[in-house]
Amino acid sequence: MKVVFVHGALVFDGAWWWHRMVEPLDALGLGTWAVELPSCVAPPVPPAETLGDMHADADAVKAAIDEEDEPLVLVGHSYGGMLITEAAAGHENVRHLVYVTSVMPEMGETLAGFGAGREPGPWMDPDSQDGTMGIKAELVPAAFMQDCDEPAVAGALERLTRQPLAAFGQAPRAVAWREKPSTYVVCAEDRATPPEAQREFAKRADRVVELATGHHPMLSRPELLARVLAEAAATPDG
Predict the structure, then answer these.
(1) For residues 198 and 194, what is the distance between their CA atoms, to the nearest angstrom?
(2) Is there a contact between 93 and 71 (Cβ–Cβ < 8 Å)?
(3) Cis peptide preceding 172, ω within 30 of 0
(4) How far apart are CA 133 and CA 112, in angstroms?
(5) Tens digit of pLDDT for each residue in 171-194?
(6) Alpha-carbon span 125 to 36, nearest angstrom
(7) Is 0.90 topped by the overall pTM?
(8) What residues have CB less than 8 Å from 178, skipping those under 6 apart?
(9) Cα–Cα distance for residue pair 52/59, rounded to 1 Å
């Protein structure tokens, strides 16, 4: 069994965001892999129209799934929940979906649509002229990483990027959680994705686990999250 990780929006280098999970998962007998997304590249970011969008990101996840013969647990963090929802559909080797403080969309639902009627987070930095979305680095530590150590915060700040606005307005082309077992991990101390919003998404999941962490448990509490993933891997038909 292998755990495949799909990172969130506005950052690059999926392997780094997941690097603290490798050792604890290996100790539990689980291999790991982090997918790199075509819409999330290191600066300087090329014109938005030359980058991938949400569907291109989902296709990259599908390609990663297709490269694996063994059973997989697919983990989507934040925006990554959009991608695993589409990518896992019809793939028999994906045995379980895990959503970590993420969106868990139905057909027709977009990331931008989930924020309708709410003020955008003060950390958001859209640019309608160049068609990209960014994040205000100075607000990241307090909003997203208040429970992370200094090396994690420093590494995260080095991996912020801009992403095409188009990715936030696209809906999944399939909904895998309707056909596969799923676990939703509520991060109860998340200051960026409100826990109450997470709990609404979690109503769609088969199983819900709450962790007393901020937005990035894979950096702040990797051993704790590893146990949750091991349980997902061990569930019947999952």
Answers:
(1) 6
(2) yes
(3) no
(4) 12
(5) 999 999 999 999 999 999 999 999
(6) 22
(7) yes
(8) none
(9) 10
Look-up of token digits 């991608």: 83
CB-CB contact of 97 with 182 (8 Å): yes
DSSP 138-206: GGHHHHH-TTS-HHHHHHHHTTB--EEGGGGG---S--GGGTS-EEEEEETT-SSS-HHHHHHHHTTSS
Q: Are strands 94-100 and 124-127 parallel, antiparallel or unpaired?
A: unpaired
Q: What is the DSSP letter of 124?
A: E
Tokens 């959680």 sit on residue: 177
**Tokens at 118, concatenated:** 């709410």
The set of residues, in sequence order, having a beta carbon less than 8 Å from that of 166 and lying 6+ positions away, is: 48, 53, 54, 131
List of domains in the chain? 2-114+121-234 (3.40.50.1820)
Q: What is the pLDDT of residues 60-119, one digit of tens each?
A: 999 999 999 899 999 999 999 999 999 999 999 999 999 999 999 999 999 988 865 566
Task: Check residue 52 and report its DSSP letter.
Answer: -
Sign of CA pseudo-dihedral 156, 185, 85, 121 = negative
CA dist., res. 131 & res. 215, Å (int): 26
**Residues, the chain:** 238
Q: How confident is the model at residue 144 (pLDDT cuts 50, 70, 90)?
A: very high
